[in-house]
Design goal:
Strand content: 35-45%
Shape: globular
Number of helices: 3
Mean pLDDT: 89
Order of helices and strands: EEEEEHHEEEEEEEEEEEH
Low-confidence stretches: 8-22
Helix content: under 10%
Structural class: mainly beta
Distance between the termini: 34 Å
């Protein structure tokens, strides 16, 4: 069993056997501006929590007009849990439009399967991201999105700035629960190589297709593999969509 460090949120660092991990961290030999993106370019991705500094934590991704998906450990955040217990719903904003989460459906095997579905009170007009339909993820390049701390694989984390970033990596391991990859150093890295961490839990891994992006994974945690925070060599884990797709579709359809 690997020692998994959750890509934790809520303004605290989580320790699990070794060390905390951090948000989108990038190659040290690539202009950092190449990783920056506008949130408007990914309208189905929205933040669930804000830090004390006003930065987004815990992304979620719209996958149907009334449904979004995130990490199960994000859905358990005290702010969200308290709002749900109070029966008031939890307020979010998707593509600039206010909405409310009125129901949370964690996967039956959570937290081992680190996925939760979020039901929205109002239908969202933002375009949902389709689920990846195949189980051929090994060797595919994925695009990771999130807000949070940044830095490089050479020096580690340098701190948050609230900028949304994308990074790339290549899936090299899969199992029934997770997709996985390593933060490789140049010259063996992808052109926009990177990993995620706190502030990015619940965020999407996307695969490009002829019809646009499809959701293939949900940011869950990392194994430090003996390396320092945000340094090259860390192994990352995203909850795998293809093996739970039937459950997601059944839940959304009400079956």
């Amino acid at each position: 069993m690997r020692f998994l460090v959750l890509n934790f949120v809520f303004g605290v660092l989580a320790w699990a056997a070794a060390m905390p991990v951090y948000a989108i961290v990038v190659r040290d030999d690539v202009d950092a501006a190449r990783y920056a993106v506008a949130a408007a370019d990914y309208p189905s991705v929205f933040g669930l929590l804000r830090t004390q500094r006003g930065f987004w934590d815990c992304p979620a991704t719209l996958i149907a007009p009334h449904w979004a998906i995130t990490a199960a450990h994000c859905a358990e955040a005290p702010r969200i849990a308290n709002a749900m217990r109070a029966g008031s719903g939890y307020s979010v904003e998707i593509a600039g439009v206010a909405n409310q989460i009125d129901r949370i459906v964690p996967h039956p095997s959570a937290p081992n399967v680190d996925i939760a579905l979020l039901h929205l009170r109002d239908e969202s007009a933002a375009p949902p991201t389709p689920l990846y339909a195949a189980s051929d993820e090994t060797g595919k390049t994925v695009v990771l999105l999130g807000w949070g701390d940044t830095g490089t694989g050479a020096v580690g984390v340098t701190g948050p700035d609230g900028q949304m970033r994308r990074a790339e990596n290549v899936v090299d391991q899969v199992d029934d629960v997770n997709l996985s990859w390593v933060f490789d150093a140049p010259p063996h890295a992808a052109p926009l190589e990177g990993i995620s961490g706190p502030g990015d839990s619940g965020g999407p891994a996307l695969i490009r297709s002829a019809h646009g992006f499809a959701l293939v994974g949900i940011s869950s945690g990392q194994d430090p593999m003996g390396h320092g925070r945000g340094h090259y060599g860390v192994r990352e884990y995203y909850a795998r969509i293809s093996t739970v797709r039937a459950w997601i579709e059944a839940t959304i359809s009400g079956r």
